[in-house]
Amino acid sequence: MKSLSSLEQMIEALRRLPGVGPKSATRMAYHLLQHDREGAQMIGQAMINGLNMIHNCGSCNTFTENTLCDTCQDSERDTSLLCVVESPSDQLMIEQTMTYKGLYFVLMGRLSPLDGVGPQDIHLDKLIRRATDGVVKEVVLATNFNNEGEATAHYISETLKVRGLHVSRLARGVPVGGELEYVDPGTIARAMLDRRNT
Amino acid sequence: MKSLSSLEQMIEALRRLPGVGPKSATRMAYHLLQHDREGAQMIGQAMINGLNMIHNCGSCNTFTENTLCDTCQDSERDTSLLCVVESPSDQLMIEQTMTYKGLYFVLMGRLSPLDGVGPQDIHLDKLIRRATDGVVKEVVLATNFNNEGEATAHYISETLKVRGLHVSRLARGVPVGGELEYVDPGTIARAMLDRRNT
C-alpha cells in the first residue's frame, strides 16, 4: 500500500470531517472509489466551489454568497428586533414558526471554555457592533437551553445590557402537548416560577 | 436560505458519503465553512486528484495508481497461490500476519442478493480469468465468516472447482487466546468437526 499516496490523501482528507475517524474515512474512500465515483466528483467540486462562493453575511454573520444575506436584505423586516441564534439551522427553525419578523445574528457556535471556544470565536465584537447600531432596540437571545447555550446567553446578556439594550430570552416552560407526568422536574419548576396571568 | 445554492450543493454532495444523512451533512458543511476551510480544501483536492489517479489493479483488482499494484509487481511472491479477499483492508490484515507469500484478488465487495450485489459486482469474470491463467494452482478463500462472506466463498468455490482449481478456505476454530467458556457454541461445534491430529 506504500505507493498509494492519492488514496491515503483521500482518507486523510475525509478524516477532517467532524465525527469521522480512520475506519470510517477508509470505508468512505473505498465506497466512493468503487461504487460512487460520481459522488466523489460532486464532493470535490462542491468543496472547491463552496469555498470560493460562501462567506459570512456582513450583517448577521450567517453563510451567504452575497455581501448581505437574503434575510438582512429583506425590507419588510422589523429592524428594531435582533434575534441571536447559535447556527443557521436554529435560525431556520425560528423562521418556520412564522412568529418572528425581526432580524438575526448567527453566532456560528456557543461559548464552551472547556473546548477552548471563547468570546472571540462566537463573533462577539461583531454582535456588539451590530446590536449597538442605534436601530436595534431589543435583542432576543435564542441560544439553546443546554449548559453552553445558557452560559452563552448569560454572557451576551451581561455584555449588551451594560450598553443600554433591552435583552430578552425565549420563554422556558412545559412544551406544547407536554403531559406533566412525563416532563422533567426542572422544566416544571421553571414553568412554575415563570407562570403568567391568564 | 433560497439563494445558498453553493451551500446546498455542499450538503447534498456530503450526503453521498456512506452513513451520512441530511443532519450530519449539514453539520459537516457548517463545520468546514466555519472552522476548517483548509480541511474543505484538502477534501476537494484529494477527491479530484484521487479520481484522476486511482483505479483498479489490472491483475488483483485492488486500488493502485499504476497498471499493476506493488504486490502484483513483487517478483518474490509465490505466483501459484491466489488469496481472495473482500477488501484492501482485509488484504492488509493478512499481510500483517506474515504467513502468506502468494498473490491476492480483491473482490471489492461480497455477494449480497438482498442489496442487489450479484456476481458481476464482485468482478467474478476477472477473478475467473485471473485464477485460470495456468500459473495459479490453489485459490485460498479469505472472505469474512459472516453470512454474506460464507455465501460468497461458497459461490466462488463452486465456480472455480469446476474449472479444475484447488480451492481452500481459511480455517475456522477457537480464536487464539480464546477460553471455551466464552466462545459461542457454533464456533466450538465447527472446531470439533474440523479437529486435527497433533
From TrEMBL, chains A, B:
Organism: Undibacterium nitidum
Source lineage: Bacteria, Pseudomonadati, Pseudomonadota, Betaproteobacteria, Burkholderiales
Keyword Nucleotide-binding: no
Superkingdom of the source species: Bacteria
Function: May play a role in DNA repair. It seems to be involved in an RecBC-independent recombinational process of DNA repair. It may act with RecF and RecO.
Gene: recR
Family according to the record: Belongs to the RecR family.
Protein name, as recorded: Recombination protein RecR
Family annotation (Pfam families): RecR_C, RecR_HhH, Toprim_4
Coiled coil ranges: none
Keyword Protein biosynthesis: no
GO biological process: DNA recombination; DNA repair
Keyword annotations from UniProtKB, A to Z: DNA damage, DNA recombination, DNA repair, Metal-binding, Zinc, Zinc-finger
Domain Toprim: 80-175
HAMAP family: RecR (MF_00017)
GO MF terms held by the record: DNA binding; zinc ion binding
InterPro entries: DNA_Rcmb_RecR, Rcmb_RecR, TOPRIM_dom, TOPRIM_RecR
Start and end residues, zinc fingers (C4-type): 57-72
